[in-house]
Automatic annotation (TrEMBL):
InterPro entries: Cation_efflux, Cation_efflux_CTD_sf, Cation_efflux_TM, Cation_efflux_TMD_sf, SLC30A9
Main location: membrane
UniProt membrane topology term: Multi-pass membrane protein
Cation efflux protein transmembrane domain span: 10-218
One Pfam match: Cation_efflux
Protein name: Cation diffusion facilitator family transporter
Subcellular location(s) per record: Membrane
Keyword Membrane: yes
Membrane-crossing residue ranges in chain numbering: 9-30, 77-94, 114-134, 160-183, 189-211
Keywords from the UniProt entry: Membrane, Transmembrane, Transmembrane helix, Transport
């Protein structure tokens, strides 16, 4: 996770959420608004999540050990999954509970101007945070759609921050809707409705994050275009007749394991095969720099032998 990429977006979101959380709790205390309280808890959960992402990025940098020979790159996937759980357990469930409680025990709002002022401030702050996340994501997204970027990205931080910031903005809109309707109609039930909307929104986002990070934790292969470059590098190696089969696995966002069985001719000597494997590894790393661990198994080209 480069300092100019995911980390910058995380720090921007963390700074925004900490300041917003304080403002929301102050507004909730003055107004008695459940929407504001739910949004305050949402901002606290988001702040904790960003701290977890930073912690995961730091732990992932540890050197490999005998117990973990492939290093700790997947720490980032683990902490991203924890973020999804925290968002659901703290953000979504609390908001749903608070919304249900206010729906059954409605209380009138007091000093709604506090809520309006804080919500406007929070929306402006979240827009700046979201803008930073979009800018950093655009630098690596290429021509992918936003949905494809979130689903295919091997670095979990930017998709997490993007969805968190989007959820925060929509949550603020829902809170503003609930408070506005409660003031206009004089019916505090609308405040509870806004809180429930926030809870359902956070539940959906947390489920999406959990599904995507679970896939990364289980182990995903390289992107198709990356596998094509690896296969082309092998095919271009003079000592490699063809690729019999190949598998790839991300052992971290910027670390790829490549395992392939390559066909060699019967007349090749052991030194020639060894030199061919070294050349193939060099070409793979040149084509795909994140291919850190490469295992190539030579075998006879049995199809060619059968044709003779």
């Amino acid at each position: 996770m480069s300092a100019s990429g995911g980390t910058k977006a995380i720090l921007a979101a963390l700074a925004a959420n900490l300041s917003i959380a304080v403002a929301k709790f102050v507004a909730a205390a003055f107004t008695g608004s459940s929407s504001m309280l739910a949004e305050g808890i949402h901002s606290v959960a988001d702040s904790g999540n960003q701290a977890l992402l930073l912690l995961g990025g730091r732990k992932a940098k540890r050197a490999s050990t005998r117990e973990h020979p492939f290093g700790y790159g997947r720490e980032r996937y683990f902490y991203a999954f924890v973020v999804a759980v925290v968002l659901f357990a703290i953000g979504a469930l609390f908001s749903l509970y608070e919304g249900y409680h206010k729906l059954t025990h409605a209380e009138p709002l007091s000093s709604p101007q506090w809520a309006f002022g804080v919500l406007i401030f929070a929306i402006i702050a979240e827009i700046f945070s979201f803008r930073t996340a979009i800018k950093e994501a655009n630098a690596v997204r290429g021509d992918q759609s936003w949905m494809a970027f979130i689903r295919r990205s091997k670095s979990p931080e930017l998709p997490v921050i993007l969805l968190e910031d989007l959820g925060a903005l929509l949550g603020l809109v829902f809170a503003l809707f609930g408070v506005t309707m409660a003031v206009v109609t004089g019916n505090p039930v609308w405040d509870a409705v806004g809180t429930l909307m926030i809870g359902f929104l956070l539940a959906v986002i947390s489920v999406v994050l959990a599904v995507e990070t679970k896939s990364l934790l289980l182990g995903e292969s390289a992107a198709p275009e990356m596998e094509s470059r690896i296969r082309a590098a092998l095919d271009a190696t003079p000592q490699v007749d063809r690729v019999i089969h190949m598998k790839t696995l991300h052992i971290g966002p910027e670390e790829l394991l490549v395992a392939a069985k390559i066909a060699v001719t019967r007349s090749d000597t052991a030194p020639e095969i060894a030199a061919g494997i070294d050349e193939a590894e060099r070409r793979i790393r040149e084509a795909v720099p994140i291919a850190r661990v490469i295992y190539l198994e030579p075998d006879l080209d049995r199809e060619a032998v059968g044709r003779v």
